[in-house]
Structures are given as structure tokens and as C-alpha cells.
Amino acid sequence: MVIQIDQFEYGFFFKGDRIHIFPHRKSRNGIFQKHTVSEWTEITKDKKVTKIFIPVTKEEKLEMLAFYNANLKIPEYDYSFFGQRCASSAYNVLKATGKINGGNYLFNAFYPAQLRKILLQQCKKDNYRVSVKDGSKKRIWEGD
């Protein structure tokens, strides 16, 4: 799960051999990445992709960019099963900027489909634009 800001996609990803069950402070295995939209389109070319267009103010965008730019250099947390992963990281950014309400990520963004469901519910309420790109026909996708 990534967040697009202008012409870049920002996300938190796993790097390494094994995902930590619980976060490790000293041997972190997560990495924040920044891809151009065209790079991300190539990475996800055979994947089903749902895009949710959430309007942000200039201040909210600057807050998100400050977070990502700092974390591109040195991630502030580890990638772990009972810690931060792609969905929970995106959830925390959206929550910190007031774009989404809710409690702990465990109940709202433990996995991507959980966060996607919450965001799609908010889309209906706030009339956000949504687009869905079909993925490969060789795979059964969630909800199919």
C-alpha cells in the first residue's frame, strides 16, 4: 500500500531475509521507498490496483512529505508482523494528517484489505473519487 503525492509513490516495504514477528530496534528490516508514478505503474502492471483520491491541503501535503523525506533516509520503525507494515504505515500517515479517524492500526490496518475497506467506506461518505485497475486474469483477487 502506497501514498501518491504529486508524481511520486511513497511506501514502506520489507527488506531482508525474514520478517520480524515483533519490532527490533537495532536490526530494522524495513525501508521507505519513493517511486515515480511510471515506475510504480510498471511494478504493479499485473496487479489489481485500487486508487482512492483523497484531497489534502498544502499543509497536510507538506506534513506527509516531511515524514516520508525523513524516513527515506532513516526509517523510524521496523517492518514486523506485530508492528509496522505497508498498510499500518499508510494508515498512520493518513491518521496523523487528519485524513482518517480511528484507533490502533491493529483494528483498522493490520493488513491492506482491512484498510482498503475502511477507506472505501469513507469514500462513499465523503464522495472521494475511486479508480480500480483489473489485475492479471491468471489470479483470483480478493473479492472475486
3D architecture notes:
With 144 residues, the protein is an alpha+beta fold. The protein is 37% helix and 19% strand. It contains 5 helices and 5 strands. It has helices at 37-43, 58-73, 86-96, 105-108, 112-126; strands at residues 2-5, 8-14, 30-36, 49-53, 129-133. The strands form 2 sheets. The protein has a 3-stranded antiparallel sheet with strand order 1-2-3. A two-stranded antiparallel sheet has the order 4-5. The chain starts with a strand and ends in an 11-residue tail after the last strand. The mean pLDDT is 91.
Walk me through the topology:
Blueprint: E1 2-5, E2 8-14, E3 30-36, H1 37-43, E4 49-53, H2 58-73, H3 86-96, H4 105-108, H5 112-126, E5 129-133
Antiparallel strand pairs: 1-2, 2-3, 4-5
* Radius of gyration (Å): 15 Å
Number of helices: 5
Going across the biggest sheet, name each strand in turn: 1-2-3
- Mean pLDDT, to the nearest integer, reads 91
Uncertain residue segments: none
Count the beta strands: 5
Give the ordered list of helices and strands.
EEEHEHHHHE
Largest sheet: 3 strands, antiparallel
Q: What percentage of amino acids are in beta strands?
A: 15-25%
Distance between the termini: 19 Å
Shape: globular
Specify the structural class. alpha+beta
Helix content: 25-40%
